[in-house]
Amino acid sequence: MTDQTTRWSADSAEACSPLRLTEMLAQVSDQTRGDRASVRALVEAFRYRASGALLILFAVPNVLPTPPGSSGILGLPLVIVAFQLMGGRPLMLPDVVLERSVSSDGFGRMVDQTLPRL
Fold this sequence. Notes:
It comes from Roseibium aquae. The protein is mainly alpha-helical. It has helices at residues 2-16, 21-31, 39-46, 50-63, 70-87, 95-98, 104-114, and strands spanning 36-38, 101-103.
């Protein structure tokens, strides 16, 4: 009887455990192959953990060698998310930011370079 209870609770804990950030990024990368990866798709994939994940996601490309001007494009959503976190508000981004997207190839390369380091 104890073995069944232990096995059931271990199985249910595995089924209920949330995905890690790296797993969510890999899923979004796989789902957007051949399409564009939008900020809206990322927010929907991360759900209630979107604030922290988006902070990391918008900050990482600023550390990697990227084309000039990309830090300005990625900085706006980073500032918006940070101010909402400071104010204790739920994540709300303007449609202009939510509709921003990058090519799936570029997003895939960024995820591939970032995942081993997270």
